[in-house]
Specification:
This protein is an alpha+beta fold and 287 residues long. It is 71% helix and 6% strand. A hairpin with a 2-residue loop joins strand 1 and strand 2.
């Protein structure tokens, strides 16, 4: 029974639950707490998927009856657990390798094409664009000459603060983890809406960090001016997504402490649930 419940929980946490959360835009008003909840749901889905097979080891009722049929089922459950773990590791490897290769290539192109100016790379291009290329030792903030000529000084400072917030918080690693998880689960389970929502939340978090150093007005105007610009693949761009939603959130200066507290409590509960399904039967077997 525990195995079935964990399997069903893994499916719910990988697909329907994230899809429902993505349709609840009010979560974005507390982006930090919302991101913790998203990470907790993702981790709980992995724990449930792995625990579905491992739970047979701790199920005292299952182990009490030994027989060929049960041995076959136990072997299949163990194989499924190993398959899930292997698929997660392979997905993480492929996503990480691809992103790092693209970023190395783009940094090499920047060395040839861009000019270094006050800790940013400037591309001689008329289209206003700004983005960052994350890296362990060689992160870059890139802007175009068109952006520098279009935006005012406060707007430029807001854009740079946004991109530096991405690099400082390593938002690329958060997005990489969710991309790997999305690829690891089958298409009929994983939710594309969930990955899109996480991308938007990352931008909202960088917007909030930029607002600590500048007023929301210049940042909002910069978002509109940069909305048409396109950043290269594997980069994080200030105008990447969710223009209307982000401008709306910039106007919201309330704290929403109650919602944040509820989401953090819910995050803890989501993580405890699959753990309890595995640990409690094991504790019962020791009693």
């Amino acid at each position: 029974m525990t195995t079935v419940m964990l399997g069903a929980l893994a499916v719910l946490l990988a697909g329907p639950v994230p899809a429902g959360m993505a349709r609840w835009p009010r979560l974005r008003r507390t982006p930090r707490a919302a991101m913790v909840l998203w990470q907790s749901v993702a981790l709980a889905a992995v724990l449930a998927a792995l625990g579905a097979g491992l739970s047979l080891v701790t199920d005292q009722a299952w182990r009490a009856e030994v027989g060929p049929a049960r041995a076959v089922v136990a072997g299949a459950a163990l194989a499924l657990t190993l398959f899930v773990a292997g698929r997660l590791l392979l997905s993480a490897h492929r996503v990480g390798t691809s992103l790092r290769r693209l970023r190395r290539r783009h940094r090499a192109q920047l060395d040839l094409l861009a000019r270094h100016d006050a800790a940013v790379e400037v591309l001689e291009h008329d289209v206003p664009v700004a983005y960052c290329v994350p890296g362990l030792r060689d992160s870059r903030v890139v802007v175009s000459a068109g952006m520098l000529g279009t935006l005012s000084e406060p707007e430029i400072e807001a854009v740079l603060a946004h991109e530096r917030a991405h690099l400082r918080a390593r938002h690329d690693l958060v997005l990489e983890a969710f991309s790997a998880l999305h690829r690891a689960f089958p298409r009929w389970v994983s939710s594309e809406a969930a990955l899109s929502e996480v991308r938007l939340l990352i931008e909202v978090l960088a917007d909030r960090a930029a607002m600590a150093a500048c007023d929301p007005g210049p940042l909002a105007r910069a978002l509109v001016a940069l909305a048409a610009g396109r950043a290269p693949e594997a980069a994080l761009a200030v105008g990447a997504c969710g223009l209307v939603e982000r401008v709306d959130l910039l106007a919201d200066r309330q704290r929403h402490r109650v919602q944040a507290a509820v989401l953090l409590a819910l995050s803890g509960a989501v993580l405890v649930l699959p753990t309890a399904f595995v640990v409690l039967p094991w504790l019962d077997s020791l009693a």
